[in-house]
Amino acid sequence: MNVIEYNNIVERLSMQVSSFQEGFAILSGSNSLKEFSSNFCHILRGSLIISNVNIFFKTSDSSSWESFVIQDNKCLNYLPRLAARSGAGVEYLYDEDFGIIASFPSTGCFWGLIIGNKIDKSPLTELDKITFQMFLQLLDNAYQSITSHNKEKELNFALNHRVVQLNSLIDTGIEISRLHKTSSLLQLSLERAAVLTNASRAVLQIQSENKIISEIGFPEDSDIKKVFESSNRIETFVEFDGLKYLFTLSEKESRNGIAGFDPTDEILLAAFARQVLTAIENEHLHREALDKERMHQEIETAAAIQRRIIPQILPEIEGYDLAGINIPSLEIGGDYYDVRKLKDGRYLIIIADVAGKGVASGLLVNTLNASLNAYVENEFNLTEVAGKLNKIIYKASTPEKYITGFIAILDPPTGTIEYLNAGHNPVFYSSKEKLIKLDKGGFAFGMLDYGMPYQSAFINIEPGEKILFYTDGITEAMNENNEEYSDEKLESFFLGQNHDRAGTFIENLMADIKKHVADTPQSDDITTLCLIRTG
Amino acid sequence: MSSEFNLVSETRDNCLLVNTTGYINNVGGQKIIDEFYMHFGNGINNVILNLAKSNVVNSIGISFLIEIIEKLNQSNGKLIFTNLDPSIEKTFTIMGLFQFAKKADNQEEAFKLL
Lengths: 535, 114
Description:
The complex is a heterodimer.
Chain A: H1 3-28, H2 33-48, E1 53-58, E2 66-69, H3 79-84, E3 89-92, E4 98-106, E5 109-116, H4 126-178, H5 182-196, E6 199-208, E7 211-218, H6 224-229, E8 233-240, E9 243-254, E10 257-259, H7 263-309, E11 320-327, E12 335-341, E13 347-354, H8 359-375, H9 382-396, E14 403-411, E15 416-422, E16 427-431, E17 434-438, E18 441-442, E19 457-460, E20 466-470, H10 472-475, H11 487-496, H12 502-517, E21 526-533
Parallel strand pairs in A: 15-18
Antiparallel strand pairs in A: 1-2, 1-5, 3-4, 4-5, 6-7, 6-9, 8-9, 9-10, 11-21, 12-13, 13-14, 14-15, 15-19, 16-17, 16-20, 20-21
Chain B: E1 6-12, E2 15-21, H1 26-39, E3 46-53, H2 59-74, E4 78-82, H3 86-95, E5 102-104, H4 107-113
Parallel strand pairs in B: 2-3, 3-4, 4-5
Antiparallel strand pairs in B: 1-2
Helix pairs in contact in B: 1-2
């Protein structure tokens, strides 16, 4: 090639540059391999003015050529020659039908071309050969461009899908935390786990001691057996409260059929299972809190009912002043007092305290109150009634529950008091400025049922004398140093007060106790009654 | 919970209306695209896809929908989704479907967008 010919080739190739650029744009804009091949045929035929272009494709060196574009069936006779070739290269044939056989590797594939002769039957020039080589390069570059573009799209899709997975994981966590029905949250989690891993089917089994007690499938009308029959499956489980929640996903989908689950799928499934576990735990705690709240309300109601048993107004007894107070603690207490007029004109005064607090104590107080209601309507014999009360309370209570009580029967005109102390704190009686502790009687009600009779005793209260009935909530009232108000302090207070008004006495006593306990929370009922003979 | 997939379709002018029921996965997506290709090129270059009864779509199902969107975009056609469940709408947004497809509350609103 001389200088003139060389310059001529360069000039003509320069003119081809724009057609290469256009060709690249057309090829790289192709939507399929067939379209890509077809476009290349048009470009090459137009540039070289040749009769036909036949294109073959294979994915590996060892696989067979697949025809993409056949413009002259005679090219198939040349396939063995194409198949015999190895690696890249161009062979110029110069025979009657075809001018070139070429093959070359590209990104993940091989291209094969069988090119017809020029339409005017003229031989290929050097320029044609150079142009052809450049078009082969164009084919390779455009194919790489399409492959890269597709990979980019796949990567974008995969990244977006990861964002969807993360977003859905977060959303599902929030959604199931709002659901209060376990079945709903299990269904939602199973559905999300299946969808985000592209599983065809999913099953959640709830097992107890290896027995299936419940099953949920996704889609809901799918055959659950198929999930466990599939060899393409992953599973995980969580356990709570003796139940095992087994999640199984099967047959991961792809556009080409079934694919294998990858480690990310297993991580996702485990994450959903953990969310379910957390939601179930939360639901359990929520239910427990509701139960506690309901029980608390019931206890408050019971406490309110019990407080109504204690009389708000005491009867007026001529020649006597009587006052009482009951300050319940937060729980249902077991303190009780009442004053009833008997049929014979005498008055029954009772103070009692059930061992312990709570609903059971409240029930026993109610039993005591109901029994007394029955007995005060009839002729009242204190020791007999005490014996009957003991049997009733014994039958109604558990071994650790009993009632200490003090019952006094006052005959107002004479001041005679028959009393009986059933294991209660000694009642204080001031007689001629001396303190007498009234403690005769017997066991606490309901403690024993040996048939031992209760014994009563008598005193005679004179004008100006007083009697103090109280429960241990007074003597055991604690201050912040855990020091009790104490029997001694109560005795001293009792003797130090000289009032003719029972109400004033009690007000002062409460003030003294308050002074002792200060801001320490009250832990027990405080109950007291004061009877003063005024005339 | 979602059930197995089904679809019904009709054509109106140059638009294919598709109503789906159930899980849009490999199976559902294939059925939708088969239905699409049956009509695409025969004067149909718009699709309205009513997903009122499909509240679950996996990424394979989405890849079929993207293929339909690409085909329609090449022929200056449109794909409009209607009656989308909020979770699907969010998924489609993240996957970028609404860059090339539209959404409407219902079929009537979808026709106004064509």
